[in-house]
Amino acid sequence: MAGSMEAVAMDCEMVGLGPSQQSGLARCSLVDAQGSVLYDKFIRPEGEITNYRTQVSGITPQHMERATPFTVARMEVLQLLRGKLVVGHDLKHDFEALKEDMNKYSIYDTATDRLLWRAANLQGCKRVSLRVLSERLLRKSIQCQHSPCLLSSLRAGHRWMGPSLRDAERE
User: H-helix or E-strand containing 152?
Assistant: First the structure.
């Protein structure tokens, strides 16, 4: 089955909503296995934004001025993911923000791939960030002035669609 599936890398950024700072989707980016951008939009989450988490998310109030409403963006993203192998890092958070059950999808999550961690000489760690994996395995920084560069992250992640995933696709 994996042999016929196209791979799509996904990364999402969240903001804090309401007094409890519950995560709400504020940006979603998708790239294909060649690194071409399939989707990259700012998304207006449902609820009041009380923390933009700019240091981590890179999201500012200006990004929300023309952002796509959540319900519209959710449908657009899920349509692009349908029938694809979804590649990403700690995807449970992205799917939670999309309000979607990730068990409906074929997933490759770099946050849980212990072979990838071993290749990066990180097997003793309890948790590994995409930034560290990228620096160790690709010798590439994916941080841009204290805020994430989603497309750089995704293009780094799509490189892991390389040998191990391509071999799985041929089986």
Answer: helix 150-159
pTM: 0.77
Give kind and range of the element (H or E) at residue 147: strand 147-148
Q: Are 22 and 93 in contact (CB under 8 A)?
A: no
| Alpha carbon distances (Å) from 23 to 27, 28, 45 | 12, 13, 9
The DSSP line for 6-46 is PEEEEEEEEEEETTTTEEEEEEEEEEETT--EEEEEEEE-S
> How confident is the model over 33-42, as pLDDT tens digits?
888 899 999 9
Model confidence over 5-28: pLDDT tens digits? 799 999 999 999 999 999 999 999
105 CB neighbour count, 10 Å cutoff: 18
